[in-house]
Write a structure and sequence with these properties.
globular, 8-stranded mixed beta sheet, 39% helix, binds N-acetyl-L-glutamyl 5-phosphate, transferase, 8 helices, binds adenosine-5'-diphosphate, Carbamate kinase, alpha/beta, two-stranded antiparallel sheet, 246 residues
Length: 246
């Protein structure tokens, strides 16, 4: 069975890629491991929204997305973040294909809660037929946007998108690459985290903001049988998410 690694690259992480990152991708490709990246772009969307005079509004790490914010989100993800990432991967000798939901309805979704979040979705279907074809030859680079069954665009949290895609592809591993080395507890990176610890650390406000959403998404994925690591370096395990206390 072909091994698949899904890498979620947070918006900050896309701008801090190291030579080790590209070397690891090349090693995976050489070993026949398929690689799909889901990129974020939250900080870049914030910066462009502010430049364009739009107020940035988030609820629990989810961007409240009105029509103007959706337009800026699409423009930044598909016009700024994704091309820069694809260019860098190509310059490092990797065969790369930029992807977005409108290519053959790659990601179908439904509204998460329109009253609370506006045009924000959760993914209900992944076009694995097309993704499998692309991944046979390319490192796929997919944006966290989905469409409803009637073609309305939805903004999707990139951690949630990565989990949905990793589950649909039956990925062996999901690496959530962010701007911290893992889940930090009392100044140290935790080697592992299980659901009980996660809820305790959330209650104690040790885990907050983006990390809380990330852990919740990661736990969903581990339950589906994919190994999940939260790290700032694909060559390091960072924090491994466990499905239950060991
Ligand atoms: N216990 C924690 N350990 C590490 N990071 C944490 C913790 N609690 C909150 N965070 C925050 O979570 C952030 C990572 O989540 P997020 O900003 O959503 O990343 P990304 O954009 O890569 O998805 C960290 O930069 C940090 O500010
Ligand atoms: C609905 C929602 O919140 N979508 C995210 C999509 C990008 C993202 O998740 O980027 P990071 O991984 O860099 O945070 C947003 O608009 O910021």
């Amino acid at each position: 069975m072909t091994e698949t690694v899904v890498i979620k690259l947070g918006g900050n992480a896309t701008e801090q890629l190291t030579p080790q990152f590209f070397d690891q991708l090349a090693r995976w490709r050489a070993a026949g491991v398929r690689v799909l990246m889901i990129h974020g772009g939250g900080p870049q969307i914030n910066a462009w929204s502010e430049r364009l005079g739009l107020t940035v509004h988030k609820r629990g790490g989810i961007r409240v997305t009105d029509a103007d914010t959706l337009a800026v989100t699409q423009a930044v993800l598909l016009g700024v973040v994704q091309p820069a990432l694809c260019l860098t991967l190509h310059q490092h000798g990797l065969p790369v294909m930029g992807l977005n939901t409108t290519d053959n309805a790659l990601l179908t979704g439904t509204l998460l809660d329109q009253q609370l979040y506006g045009a924000v979705g959760k993914i209900t279907q992944v076009n694995t037929t097309v993704l499998n074809r692309v991944l046979a030859d390319y490192v796929g680079v997919l944006a966290p946007l989905a469409q409803t069954s009637d073609g309305t665009m939805l903004n999707v949290n990139a951690d949630m998108a990565a989990v949905a895609v990793a589950r649909a592809l039956g990925a062996t591993r999901l690496m959530m690459v962010t701007d911290v080395p893992g889940v930090i507890v009392n100044g140290t990176t935790a080697a592992t985290i299980d659901p009980q610890q996660a809820s305790r650390w959330v209650q104690q406000r040790i885990i907050t903001s983006g990390m809380e959403a990330k852990i919740n998404a990661a736990i969903d994925c581990v339950h589906a049988g994919t190994q999940v690591n939260i790290t700032n370096d694909v060559t390091r395990p960072g924090t491994m998410v466990l499905s239950a206390a060991m």
